[in-house]
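Example record for the data management plan.
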Amino acid sequence: MAPIVKMHTLGHDFVPAAIHAGGLRYHGMAPSLCGLYDAGYIEAVSVPQKATFEAAIQFARAEGIIPAPESAHGIRAAIDEALDAKAKGEKRVILFNLSGHGNFDMAAYEAYLSGKLEDYEYPAEAVKASLEKLPQVTLS
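Corresponding structural encoding:
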């Protein structure tokens, strides 16, 4: 893909907080996801770390697979979507991607299970400052 491919980003100089979100601390999204988001096929949601690891533990106990933290974010969103559908009495098709196992993330699971993992909300001012540094690009 050429550099002209649209990507939602906070800029290459964005420095995320030292949280444990695995590969989700990257400054941008894959161009394919950006296209799906812009076309309205998917929506973006944010979930806190502790709720993410809670969902990961629930998934591991039910499925016997320890998910990677990146996948656990999707699992949390899928669980929340299912609970919302149940509460509203709706039938929904819910899809998420289990992109990897969490065998290399045991320290994060240990931190969660021992109560040391904390939720963190990145300051909106810092996001705004990063976005203001981005060049304005017009796509036609």
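Summary line stored alongside the record: Residues 69-88 form the longest helix (20 residues).
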